[in-house]
Amino acid sequence: MPALVPEKGYLDYWIKANKRAVGLGKRLLGRRFMLLSFEELCRSTKREIERLISFLDLDRRSVDIDRLCNIVKKPKSIGRYRDQDLGIFSQEAVRAVKEIERTLNRVGCNTKK
After folding, report:
1. I want to staple 29 with a disulfide (CB 3.0 to 4.6 A). Which of 5, 33, 79, 110 is the partner?
2. How many angstroms separate the CA atoms of 91 and 96, rounded?
3. What are the start-end ranges of the H helices in the chain?
């Protein structure tokens, strides 16, 4: 019997959840739907908060951007997958992650860092 690798299940769930969220958001909300990458929010906090404020069509003068930036805390787990052996995942799963990454990049979330 092959060893169980819980990470495969976690990734499968992540892929399905993200595909569903993007699909539903686009279908049900259209232009009122915005993708926001948590990694990018942690990496480029001010830029992402400004992008969100713009999306929400808020008056920037009425928003304390610095206060909002201080709320965001980068967890130690961000990017840890880069140090892992991704060979345990199927090529199909890797392709699905890359497609989600391309979707994020198309809407202004830079996932290439």
Report:
1. 33
2. 9
3. 6-24, 38-43, 45-55, 65-71, 91-106
Which sign does the torsion angle of CA 74, 47, 36, 33 carry?
Answer: positive
Phi-psi map region of 104: left, alpha, beta (phi>0 left; psi -120 to 50 alpha): alpha
Helix (H, G, I), strand (E, B) or coil at 3: coil
Distance CA 15, CA 19 (A): 6
- Look up the pTM and report it: 0.76
Angle between helices 6-24 and 91-106 (to 10 degrees): 40
Reported as a single tens digit per residue, the pLDDT across 52-105 is 999 999 999 999 999 999 999 999 988 887 787 888 899 999 899 889 888 888
Note the pLDDT of residue 21.
92
HSE, side-chain direction, 13 A CA sphere, residue 35: 24
